[in-house]
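Example 696.
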Amino acid sequence: MEVIEGLNEKQAEAVLYFGSPLLVLAGAGSGKTKVITHKIIFLIKELEIPLDRILAITFTNKAASEMKERVKNYLGLEEEPQWISTFHSFCVKVLRSEAESIGYSRDFIIYDEEDSKKAIKDVVKELNLNSDLYKPERVKHIFSNIKQSLDDTVLEFYSFTMPHLPEIYKKYEEHLAFSNAMDFDDLLINVVKLFNQNPDILKRWQNRFDYILVDEYQDTNKVQHQILKLLVGDRDCITVVGDPQQCIYTWRGANPENILEFEKDFPGTKIIKLERNYRSTEKILSIANKVISGSKGRWKEKILKLWTDRKGGEDIYLIRLDTDKHESGFIGKMIKKIISDEGYSYRDFAVLIRMSYVSRNIEEAFINLKIPYQIVGGVKFFERAEVKDILAYLRFALLPKDTQAFKRIINLPSRGIGDKTIEKIRSFYERDWLQALEDSYNHLSPKIRMRVQEFLEIIETVRKYGNEKPSQMAKYVFDAINYEEYLVSKYPKDYEDRIANVNELFNALKEVERSGKSLLEFLEESSLSQAQDSIQEENSVKIMTVHASKGLEFPVVFIAGLEEGIFPSGRSFEDIEQMEEERRLFYVAITRAKEKLFLTYSKYRAGYGSHYNETKPSRFLQDIKDDLKIISTQRAVRKRSDKVNTTVSSDDLKVGQAVKHDIFGKGVITKIDGNKAVVIFEKVGEKTIRKDFLKI
Ligand code: ATP
Ligand code: MG
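Predicted structure in complex with adenosine-5'-triphosphate:
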């Protein structure tokens, strides 16, 4: 049979098995995703199940579109497989057609993380509460926990330390309802509510799908699990694949143990284990196995140790550099060398980091060395302020109930409309903000009235043409509000980048026009966008966080910043669970590599201020150091400390003194502050440095 040709015995068994719910449990690179793809193809080709009766859930949009492509190509399909999607996109589709049943209108708005945090900030302000205690990030995180746990007592638990939390929660929920908006968590729990409260609707959705498949199951949370249970009902029609060793989203409610619970919730579950890795060389696999065997999870015995027939492989290097600057420079030069010596291309490389701030140095080095690179993740395109500003005009024009969009644009550019005026407008609110604005018009001061008039004209125009000509409308808004001028004055340093981003948005909207998608669909996609979405098929090195690298693979991988406090992160030092997760993250990072793997760290790293901190190598390196080729630039470091020792006595340092620093070069002291000195360096400007790092 063509569909299972090339699959190994276990993989083929997983594709062909339909006797009961199926759980494929296996380590990285063993072909789990491949099994899902082939099973979809098998269902369609051999069992003649129509494509739109198969639901396949992936963790990222990118994974979904890759799977769609494969299925389409394999079967020579024209149509888009619309039910290969992420949990969130699936839920949006369900809710768009059923919203009324749970008290929303179908054109509900999706609040992304930033919208939600802003709404919380507004609520905290409204309630006159301490904004230091009730920080939007923290409160949002807690609200997510509450919603994801499907358990109201969680709110009580947090209320011990944050007594006003229930009030904020209530108001936040009111705010969402008022704006006909759902946050990311609502998208999921509202589907659970919908199905639980409406057995007939549930029946309809159950009948819609003959088979359900889920990739990266280890990172599903309780609510997502609940949705699957409801959809499957008492049938057998589900296959999930996952690897508890790669569970890296516990902060979003996943748990490596959940995957083991699958058996309980789906009685009669069959488990198939894969044991052959096709991705990495034996050496890479061997250190991956060592790293994860240090884990404490009870799933450890459940996963078979992977083997590969790609015997041996190239040495794995651990390189210690003097400073983070040297580290980035090394990575850049190494990439160039490998390309020129061995014929690799830029696209074959990925630099993985635990914390996104580590990327700054690497970017600098790549710019200097003229290495094309792409940051995957960071601030997502659709979360960039300038992109959101313009989109908010379109969003508001289409959906004038959207409170956050309204607040974002009503005073952008400044129209002299502050909180007081917004309150006044709100008192006229009946249907939506547009109506409120029109009805309150005569009650506003004459000066503001004129500006509001201009605003209304812009909105009216966009309402008229927005759906047909979104890109033209975005340009129209850009001009009508003098947005370029606004960017130039607000961001004198990087306005050019920002204008380029707005241009990119125009292009994206043109694409919408060509594809026949509606603007509403586009807005929805933009709110659900994720880090990996930005990956372009261009010939460039990818720099990304380990989280964003999930499911991907690269011929050459660098893992940078392997230092205590970075990888593992400082947060994990006092939290065993978190430390376990860091270990799993390291396992994920290593297993992205196919052929070459470099681990790097630096002895000194620039801290928050300007001085360098001495670092400690990551504890994870201990377990694997015997398998690594270790290179260190220790001589340079020793020399450096020699110099430190010969430093003049601190008493000799005074304001006006010319000094030299090993890393920053020449400078002049402008201030002495205890054991530190403020120095203006010729090359890097002002820095505060420990006195004993300076030489006359
Ligand atoms: P991860 O845990 O990282 O998500 P995975 O288990 O999903 O990995 P895949 O991405 O499906 O693994 O496969 C890893 C690599 O191995 C891919 O390049 C895939 O094409 C290849 N591969 C998988 N199975 C086979 C096979 N039977 N023959 C040849 N190559 C295979
Ligand atoms: Mg996979």
